[in-house]
Amino acid sequence: MTVSFIVPHLNRCDLLTPLLTSIRRQQESFSGEIEIMIVDNGSTDGSVRLAEELGAKVIALPENEGVSRALNRGIQAARGDFVALINNDVELSPNWLRCLLAALEDSQAWFATGKLLNFNERHQIDGAGDAVCRGGTSWRLGHGKDDGPAFASARRTYFPSATATLFRRTFFDQVGLYEEAFFAYLEDVDLGFRAAIEDKPGSYVPEAVAFHISGETAGPWSPQMVEWLTCHQLLLLAKFYPASLLTRFAWQILVAQALWAVLAVSRGRTLGWIRGFSSGLRRFRMLRRGSRSLRPHDSRLAAVLRSTESEIARVQQQTQWDTYWRWYFRLAGAPMDVSL
After folding, report:
1. CA 57 to CA 68: how far, in whole Å?
2. In this predicted model, what pLDDT tens digit does every residue of 246-281 receive, in sequence order?
3. For an engineered disulfide with 89, which of 19, 34, 213, 235 has Cβ 3.0 to 4.6 Å away?
4. Range 173-209 burial, b when 16+ CB lie within 10 A, else e
5. Which domains, ranges and CATH numbers included, belong to the chain?
6. Where are the extended beta strands (E) located within 130-288?
7. With the CA atoms of 184, 189, 191 and 192 taken in that order, what torsion angle do they form, in degrees rounded to the nearest 10?
8. Residue 232 main-chain phi, psi, to 5 deg
9. Is the pTM for the entire model greater than 0.90?
10. Cβ atoms < 10 Å from Cβ of 322
Protein backbone atom coordinates (compact mmCIF):
# COMPACT_ATOMS: atom_id res chain seq x y z
CA MET A 1 0.00 0.00 0.00
CA THR A 2 1.21 3.48 -0.88
CA VAL A 3 0.02 6.76 0.62
CA SER A 4 0.84 9.93 -1.31
CA PHE A 5 1.16 13.13 0.73
CA ILE A 6 0.54 16.25 -1.35
CA VAL A 7 1.45 19.70 -0.05
CA PRO A 8 0.71 22.92 -2.00
CA HIS A 9 3.39 25.44 -1.12
CA LEU A 10 4.46 29.03 -1.73
CA ASN A 11 7.59 30.43 -0.07
CA ARG A 12 7.68 30.01 3.74
CA CYS A 13 10.49 27.46 3.57
CA ASP A 14 10.66 27.70 7.37
CA LEU A 15 7.47 25.61 7.51
CA LEU A 16 8.86 22.70 5.48
CA THR A 17 11.17 21.06 8.00
CA PRO A 18 8.59 20.57 10.80
CA LEU A 19 5.92 19.54 8.29
CA LEU A 20 8.04 16.97 6.45
CA THR A 21 9.45 15.63 9.71
CA SER A 22 5.93 14.98 10.97
CA ILE A 23 5.01 13.24 7.69
CA ARG A 24 8.09 11.01 7.88
CA ARG A 25 7.15 10.15 11.45
CA GLN A 26 3.97 8.46 10.14
CA GLN A 27 6.20 5.62 8.93
CA GLU A 28 6.68 4.50 12.55
CA SER A 29 3.16 3.03 12.64
CA PHE A 30 2.64 2.36 8.91
CA SER A 31 4.26 -0.54 7.08
CA GLY A 32 3.50 0.67 3.56
CA GLU A 33 5.24 3.23 1.35
CA ILE A 34 4.94 6.97 1.83
CA GLU A 35 5.33 9.30 -1.15
CA ILE A 36 5.76 13.02 -0.41
CA MET A 37 5.16 15.64 -3.09
CA ILE A 38 5.55 19.38 -2.69
CA VAL A 39 3.68 21.29 -5.40
CA ASP A 40 5.51 24.60 -5.41
CA ASN A 41 3.67 27.66 -6.70
CA GLY A 42 6.72 29.64 -7.83
CA SER A 43 8.59 30.06 -4.54
CA THR A 44 11.59 32.39 -4.55
CA ASP A 45 12.99 31.67 -1.08
CA GLY A 46 14.82 28.39 -1.64
CA SER A 47 11.82 26.19 -0.83
CA VAL A 48 12.34 23.90 -3.83
CA ARG A 49 15.96 23.16 -2.92
CA LEU A 50 15.11 22.57 0.74
CA ALA A 51 12.20 20.26 -0.08
CA GLU A 52 14.42 18.15 -2.33
CA GLU A 53 17.14 18.03 0.34
CA LEU A 54 14.53 16.77 2.81
CA GLY A 55 13.60 13.93 0.45
CA ALA A 56 10.36 15.21 -1.08
CA LYS A 57 9.50 15.08 -4.76
CA VAL A 58 8.86 18.57 -6.10
CA ILE A 59 6.48 19.65 -8.84
CA ALA A 60 7.75 23.16 -9.52
CA LEU A 61 5.21 25.49 -11.14
CA PRO A 62 6.65 28.58 -12.86
CA GLU A 63 4.34 30.97 -10.98
CA ASN A 64 1.56 31.03 -8.40
CA GLU A 65 -1.24 29.13 -10.14
CA GLY A 66 -3.46 28.88 -7.05
CA VAL A 67 -4.20 26.29 -4.40
CA SER A 68 -6.75 24.32 -6.44
CA ARG A 69 -4.48 23.89 -9.44
CA ALA A 70 -1.56 22.90 -7.21
CA LEU A 71 -3.69 20.26 -5.47
CA ASN A 72 -4.90 18.92 -8.80
CA ARG A 73 -1.37 18.66 -10.18
CA GLY A 74 -0.35 16.68 -7.13
CA ILE A 75 -3.38 14.36 -7.24
CA GLN A 76 -2.81 13.64 -10.94
CA ALA A 77 0.85 12.76 -10.31
CA ALA A 78 0.25 10.70 -7.15
CA ARG A 79 1.01 6.97 -7.19
CA GLY A 80 -0.76 6.15 -3.94
CA ASP A 81 -3.83 4.06 -3.25
CA PHE A 82 -4.61 6.82 -0.73
CA VAL A 83 -3.96 10.54 -1.08
CA ALA A 84 -3.33 12.82 1.91
CA LEU A 85 -3.75 16.53 1.24
CA ILE A 86 -1.88 18.67 3.78
CA ASN A 87 -1.41 22.43 4.16
CA ASN A 88 2.19 23.57 4.48
CA ASP A 89 1.43 25.13 7.91
CA VAL A 90 0.43 21.83 9.55
CA GLU A 91 2.21 19.42 11.87
CA LEU A 92 0.78 15.88 12.12
CA SER A 93 0.68 13.85 15.33
CA PRO A 94 2.58 10.52 15.01
CA ASN A 95 -0.59 8.39 14.78
CA TRP A 96 -2.50 10.64 12.35
CA LEU A 97 -2.17 8.36 9.32
CA ARG A 98 -2.75 5.14 11.28
CA CYS A 99 -6.00 6.46 12.78
CA LEU A 100 -7.40 7.66 9.47
CA LEU A 101 -6.44 4.50 7.58
CA ALA A 102 -8.13 2.41 10.28
CA ALA A 103 -11.29 4.50 9.93
CA LEU A 104 -11.34 3.98 6.17
CA GLU A 105 -10.68 0.25 6.49
CA ASP A 106 -13.51 -0.15 9.02
CA SER A 107 -16.12 1.76 7.03
CA GLN A 108 -17.35 2.58 3.55
CA ALA A 109 -16.16 6.19 3.91
CA TRP A 110 -14.45 7.79 0.95
CA PHE A 111 -12.25 10.08 3.01
CA ALA A 112 -11.31 10.67 6.64
CA THR A 113 -10.43 13.91 8.38
CA GLY A 114 -9.22 14.43 11.92
CA LYS A 115 -9.23 17.03 14.66
CA LEU A 116 -7.24 20.20 13.96
CA LEU A 117 -5.84 22.02 16.99
CA ASN A 118 -4.33 25.50 17.10
CA PHE A 119 -0.56 25.14 16.65
CA ASN A 120 0.28 27.67 19.36
CA GLU A 121 -2.70 27.12 21.72
CA ARG A 122 -2.97 23.35 21.66
CA HIS A 123 -6.03 23.17 23.90
CA GLN A 124 -7.96 25.13 21.27
CA ILE A 125 -9.83 23.76 18.26
CA ASP A 126 -8.78 25.02 14.84
CA GLY A 127 -11.38 22.86 13.11
CA ALA A 128 -13.31 19.62 13.64
CA GLY A 129 -14.51 19.24 10.09
CA ASP A 130 -16.39 21.74 7.93
CA ALA A 131 -20.08 22.59 7.74
CA VAL A 132 -22.22 24.88 5.58
CA CYS A 133 -25.39 26.77 6.45
CA ARG A 134 -28.42 27.26 4.20
CA GLY A 135 -27.21 30.79 3.50
CA GLY A 136 -24.07 29.49 1.81
CA THR A 137 -21.42 30.46 4.35
CA SER A 138 -19.25 27.78 5.94
CA TRP A 139 -17.47 27.28 9.25
CA ARG A 140 -14.63 25.13 10.45
CA LEU A 141 -16.58 23.47 13.25
CA GLY A 142 -15.35 24.59 16.65
CA HIS A 143 -12.82 27.12 15.35
CA GLY A 144 -11.53 29.12 18.32
CA LYS A 145 -13.27 26.94 20.93
CA ASP A 146 -11.57 24.98 23.71
CA ASP A 147 -11.29 21.27 22.95
CA GLY A 148 -13.85 19.15 24.76
CA PRO A 149 -16.70 16.64 24.51
CA ALA A 150 -18.37 18.48 21.63
CA PHE A 151 -15.47 17.43 19.37
CA ALA A 152 -14.78 13.94 20.73
CA SER A 153 -17.28 11.85 18.74
CA ALA A 154 -16.81 10.38 15.28
CA ARG A 155 -19.44 11.32 12.72
CA ARG A 156 -20.22 11.21 9.02
CA THR A 157 -19.50 14.26 6.90
CA TYR A 158 -19.52 15.29 3.26
CA PHE A 159 -17.09 18.20 3.63
CA PRO A 160 -13.37 17.27 3.60
CA SER A 161 -11.13 20.11 4.72
CA ALA A 162 -8.10 20.47 2.45
CA THR A 163 -6.03 21.41 5.52
CA ALA A 164 -5.36 17.77 6.44
CA THR A 165 -7.50 14.94 5.02
CA LEU A 166 -6.86 11.41 3.76
CA PHE A 167 -8.76 10.31 0.63
CA ARG A 168 -9.22 7.09 -1.22
CA ARG A 169 -7.65 7.72 -4.62
CA THR A 170 -10.87 6.62 -6.29
CA PHE A 171 -12.80 9.44 -4.57
CA PHE A 172 -11.47 11.88 -7.15
CA ASP A 173 -12.42 9.54 -9.99
CA GLN A 174 -16.01 9.65 -8.71
CA VAL A 175 -16.34 13.29 -7.64
CA GLY A 176 -13.75 15.08 -9.74
CA LEU A 177 -10.79 17.30 -8.92
CA TYR A 178 -10.76 20.71 -7.26
CA GLU A 179 -12.53 23.62 -8.95
CA GLU A 180 -9.74 25.71 -10.46
CA ALA A 181 -12.02 28.74 -10.72
CA PHE A 182 -11.42 28.99 -6.96
CA PHE A 183 -7.86 30.32 -6.73
CA ALA A 184 -7.77 29.83 -2.95
CA TYR A 185 -10.30 29.37 -0.12
CA LEU A 186 -13.53 27.33 -0.24
CA GLU A 187 -12.16 24.99 -2.90
CA ASP A 188 -12.66 22.21 -0.35
CA VAL A 189 -16.26 23.30 0.34
CA ASP A 190 -16.90 23.12 -3.41
CA LEU A 191 -15.54 19.56 -3.37
CA GLY A 192 -17.79 18.78 -0.40
CA PHE A 193 -20.89 19.91 -2.27
CA ARG A 194 -20.02 17.50 -5.06
CA ALA A 195 -19.39 14.70 -2.54
CA ALA A 196 -22.87 15.35 -1.12
CA ILE A 197 -24.48 15.34 -4.56
CA GLU A 198 -22.73 12.05 -5.45
CA ASP A 199 -23.40 10.63 -1.94
CA LYS A 200 -19.72 9.95 -1.22
CA PRO A 201 -19.48 10.53 2.55
CA GLY A 202 -16.40 10.64 4.73
CA SER A 203 -15.64 10.31 8.43
CA TYR A 204 -14.53 12.73 11.11
CA VAL A 205 -12.02 10.88 13.32
CA PRO A 206 -11.22 12.84 16.50
CA GLU A 207 -8.29 10.58 17.47
CA ALA A 208 -6.35 11.75 14.38
CA VAL A 209 -4.90 15.06 15.57
CA ALA A 210 -2.97 17.67 13.60
CA PHE A 211 -1.80 21.15 14.55
CA HIS A 212 -2.49 24.10 12.25
CA ILE A 213 -1.13 27.64 12.05
CA SER A 214 -4.09 29.43 10.45
CA GLY A 215 -3.57 32.12 7.82
CA GLU A 216 0.14 31.62 7.22
CA THR A 217 -0.09 31.97 3.43
CA ALA A 218 -2.44 34.88 2.75
CA GLY A 219 -2.39 36.19 6.32
CA PRO A 220 -5.23 36.25 8.87
CA TRP A 221 -8.01 38.57 7.70
CA SER A 222 -5.92 39.89 4.83
CA PRO A 223 -7.75 41.94 2.16
CA GLN A 224 -7.00 39.17 -0.36
CA MET A 225 -8.49 36.50 1.90
CA VAL A 226 -11.69 38.53 2.35
CA GLU A 227 -11.92 39.13 -1.40
CA TRP A 228 -11.56 35.44 -2.25
CA LEU A 229 -13.99 34.29 0.45
CA THR A 230 -16.63 36.84 -0.56
CA CYS A 231 -16.36 35.97 -4.24
CA HIS A 232 -16.31 32.21 -3.75
CA GLN A 233 -19.32 32.21 -1.43
CA LEU A 234 -21.34 33.70 -4.28
CA LEU A 235 -19.89 31.21 -6.73
CA LEU A 236 -20.91 28.28 -4.51
CA LEU A 237 -24.49 29.57 -4.68
CA ALA A 238 -24.22 29.92 -8.43
CA LYS A 239 -22.80 26.47 -8.94
CA PHE A 240 -24.84 24.30 -6.58
CA TYR A 241 -28.14 25.95 -5.59
CA PRO A 242 -31.00 25.15 -8.00
CA ALA A 243 -33.41 28.01 -8.64
CA SER A 244 -35.86 26.37 -6.22
CA LEU A 245 -33.32 26.55 -3.37
CA LEU A 246 -32.28 30.10 -4.24
CA THR A 247 -35.94 30.97 -3.78
CA ARG A 248 -36.61 28.75 -0.72
CA PHE A 249 -33.48 29.90 1.11
CA ALA A 250 -33.46 33.49 -0.19
CA TRP A 251 -33.87 34.96 3.30
CA GLN A 252 -31.14 32.78 4.79
CA ILE A 253 -28.79 33.68 1.91
CA LEU A 254 -29.47 37.38 2.40
CA VAL A 255 -28.87 37.11 6.16
CA ALA A 256 -25.67 35.05 5.81
CA GLN A 257 -24.12 37.29 3.16
CA ALA A 258 -25.15 40.53 4.89
CA LEU A 259 -23.64 39.38 8.18
CA TRP A 260 -20.46 38.40 6.36
CA ALA A 261 -20.30 41.91 4.89
CA VAL A 262 -20.73 43.43 8.36
CA LEU A 263 -17.99 41.17 9.72
CA ALA A 264 -15.59 42.12 6.92
CA VAL A 265 -16.27 45.84 7.34
CA SER A 266 -15.82 45.58 11.12
CA ARG A 267 -12.35 44.10 10.47
CA GLY A 268 -11.42 47.04 8.25
CA ARG A 269 -11.73 45.01 5.05
CA THR A 270 -14.45 46.97 3.24
CA LEU A 271 -12.47 47.24 0.00
CA GLY A 272 -11.68 43.52 -0.01
CA TRP A 273 -15.38 42.73 0.44
CA ILE A 274 -16.41 45.14 -2.35
CA ARG A 275 -13.89 43.62 -4.73
CA GLY A 276 -14.94 40.08 -3.89
CA PHE A 277 -18.65 40.84 -4.17
CA SER A 278 -18.17 42.57 -7.52
CA SER A 279 -16.06 39.69 -8.84
CA GLY A 280 -18.60 37.13 -7.63
CA LEU A 281 -21.47 38.95 -9.37
CA ARG A 282 -19.50 39.21 -12.62
CA ARG A 283 -18.69 35.50 -12.64
CA PHE A 284 -22.02 34.25 -11.24
CA ARG A 285 -23.91 33.70 -14.50
CA MET A 286 -21.02 32.13 -16.41
CA LEU A 287 -20.26 29.58 -13.68
CA ARG A 288 -23.96 28.82 -13.28
CA ARG A 289 -24.36 28.08 -17.00
CA GLY A 290 -21.42 25.67 -16.91
CA SER A 291 -22.63 23.67 -13.90
CA ARG A 292 -26.26 22.77 -14.72
CA SER A 293 -25.57 19.06 -14.29
CA LEU A 294 -24.70 19.62 -10.60
CA ARG A 295 -28.19 20.91 -9.72
CA PRO A 296 -30.60 18.03 -10.44
CA HIS A 297 -31.93 17.22 -6.97
CA ASP A 298 -32.88 20.15 -4.77
CA SER A 299 -34.39 17.95 -2.03
CA ARG A 300 -31.10 16.10 -1.47
CA LEU A 301 -29.02 19.28 -1.22
CA ALA A 302 -31.62 20.93 1.03
CA ALA A 303 -31.41 17.97 3.43
CA VAL A 304 -27.61 18.10 3.52
CA LEU A 305 -27.62 21.85 4.17
CA ARG A 306 -30.16 21.52 6.98
CA SER A 307 -28.08 18.74 8.54
CA THR A 308 -24.77 20.62 8.43
CA GLU A 309 -26.46 23.81 9.62
CA SER A 310 -27.73 21.85 12.63
CA GLU A 311 -24.15 20.74 13.33
CA ILE A 312 -23.07 24.38 13.46
CA ALA A 313 -25.93 25.29 15.79
CA ARG A 314 -25.29 22.36 18.14
CA VAL A 315 -21.57 23.14 18.49
CA GLN A 316 -22.36 26.81 19.11
CA GLN A 317 -24.92 25.88 21.76
CA GLN A 318 -22.58 23.40 23.50
CA THR A 319 -19.69 25.87 23.65
CA GLN A 320 -20.29 29.61 23.40
CA TRP A 321 -22.16 31.49 20.72
CA ASP A 322 -20.06 33.48 18.26
CA THR A 323 -21.64 36.79 17.30
CA TYR A 324 -21.95 35.88 13.61
CA TRP A 325 -23.76 32.61 14.25
CA ARG A 326 -25.97 33.94 17.05
CA TRP A 327 -27.29 36.64 14.74
CA TYR A 328 -27.56 34.26 11.78
CA PHE A 329 -29.76 31.82 13.70
CA ARG A 330 -31.78 34.60 15.33
CA LEU A 331 -32.60 36.07 11.93
CA ALA A 332 -32.61 32.96 9.73
CA GLY A 333 -34.27 30.60 12.22
CA ALA A 334 -32.58 28.07 14.50
CA PRO A 335 -33.12 24.29 14.27
CA MET A 336 -35.96 23.01 16.44
CA ASP A 337 -33.62 21.27 18.93
CA VAL A 338 -31.41 24.32 19.52
CA SER A 339 -32.18 27.30 21.75
CA LEU A 340 -30.43 30.65 21.40
Report:
1. 19
2. 999 999 999 999 999 999 999 999 999 999 999 999
3. 213
4. eebebbbebbbbbbbbbbbbbbbbbeebbbbbbbbbb
5. 2-212 (3.90.550.60), 223-332 (no CATH)
6. 130-132, 138-140, 155-157, 164-168, 202-212
7. 170
8. -75, -30
9. yes
10. 17
